[in-house]
Amino acid sequence: MAAWGTKTFEEDTANDWIQELIDSEDARELLSESLSVDPGYIEADQAAIVLAASETLIALLDEPRIGVPGELVDWVGDNECDDVSELPEEALPALDKVLGKESELRDIWADSEDFDEWLENVESMREAISQMAQL
Question: How far is 41 from 128, CA to CA, in rounded Å?
Fold first, then answer.
């Protein structure tokens, strides 16, 4: 049974991405790649990865938000990542893409009764990233 919820890590793709991060030889590179989105339509899995990478940036540069799995919190506490201070600037356009009209994940949530809760979560994340990008 697939996991599905309004918080970032209540979704299977995001949880699978955590394992990819843990196993990564270069976490900073994985974060940057995860925030890189092509022009045009963004599919749901890629959007989920953008959200997971953005949550990870918040945890690395500030503190984990509510709903971040203990496995990721432990990784953040146990690992140093090469300087990621400029990655919030990469995350902003990726988050805008997830929130935009050409986002499969947004389309899926727009048809859900929980759309407002999902949207609030992503917009809150975007606001946190935006504040980090201005530092």
Answer: 24
50: closest CA among 109, 126, 120? Answer: 126
Half-sphere exposure at residue 16, Cβ-oriented, CA atoms within 13 angstroms? 10
Rounded alpha-carbon distances, angstroms, from residue 30 to 18, 40, 51, 114: 11, 22, 13, 30
How far are the Cα atoms of 24, 98, 132 from residue 92, in angstroms, in the given order? 23, 10, 10
Q: Where are the alpha helices (DSSP H) in the chain?
A: 12-23, 27-34, 44-61, 70-78, 87-99, 104-110, 115-133
pTM as predicted: 0.94
What are 12-66's pLDDT values in tens digits?
999 999 999 999 999 999 999 999 998 899 999 999 999 999 999 999 999 999 8
pLDDT in tens, 73-84: 999 998 777 789
